[in-house]
Specification:
- The chain has helices at 44-51, 87-90, 96-102, 107-115, 160-177, 187-190, and strands at residues 3-4, 10-11, 15-17, 24-27, 33-40, 60-62, 68-70, 76-78, 129-140, 153-155, 184-186.
- It is 25% helix and 23% strand.
- Strands 3, 5, 6, 7, 9, 10 and 11 form a seven-stranded mixed β-sheet that branches. Strands 1-2 form a two-stranded antiparallel ribbon. It has a two-stranded antiparallel ribbon with strand order 4-8.
- The protein has a single domain (3-84, 123-190), classed as 3-Layer(aba) Sandwich (Lysozyme-like).
- It is globular and about 50 Å long.
- InterPro entries: Amidase/PGRP_sf (IPR036505), Amidase_domain (IPR002502), NAMLAA_amidase_2 (IPR051206).
- Residues 31-190 form the N-acetylmuramoyl-L-alanine amidase domain.
- It catalyses: Hydrolyzes the link between N-acetylmuramoyl residues and L-amino acid residues in certain cell-wall glycopeptides.
Length: 203
Amino acid sequence: MFRIDKDGMIRSVRVEARRFPSLERGDMPMVNGIVVHQTGGSTAQSTFNSYRDSAIGAHFLIEKDGRVYQTASLYKRANHVGLLRSRCLERHACAPAELKRLQGTSLRTRSRMEHAKAFPDRFPSNRDSIGIELVGEYTRNPDFGTVRGADEFLYVAVTDQQNAALRWLVGELRRALKVAAKEVYRHPQVSYKTPTEAASASW
C-alpha cells in the first residue's frame, strides 16, 4: 500500500520519483481510467531522454527489470492517449442518429466528437486517465506488405518482472483512485495504435 503526497507523488519504496514537469498539462481533478502503453524504446533512459524535449508522456514508467518510476503527478493531466476511439462504435452500441453522424468522418473528427462527451459515454482520455508506460521496443514485421492484414510493427513481449510490477501498480492505483477494473485498457483499445502494443501486459 502506498500514500499520495500533496503534490500527487507516490510515497513508496517500490516507486522512484523521476518527475518531468514538462509532461504535466494542467490539473486532473478526476481519474476515470488507466491506460497501459509500451514505449517503443529499449531502456528507461531512452524514455527519460525523450521526455526532456517532449510534452507527450505518461505518469509512470516500468523498466524491464520491474523498477517503477513516477514521471508525472497523479493530479496533473499528461498527453498519452492520442486520438480517442468511439466507445459506442467499439461496443456496437451507437444510437442510429450518432452512427449516421460518425459515418464518413475522419479519425480526428471522431476523436473531437468523443472528447465532447462526458465519461462514461466515452473512453478515458488525457484529461481523466493515468498513463503507464512499459519499456519495450518494436521491430518491423517481416510479413508486412506480403501477408494480408499484417501489422507494420511488432512490440516485444512484456517481461515477467514488468507484469508483476504492473499488477501491483494497477491494483494500488485502482484502490487509491477508485478506478473500476473495466476502465483499465491497453493503448490500442482506446486509441489508434499498433495492435501489439502492450498486448502481453497483464494486470
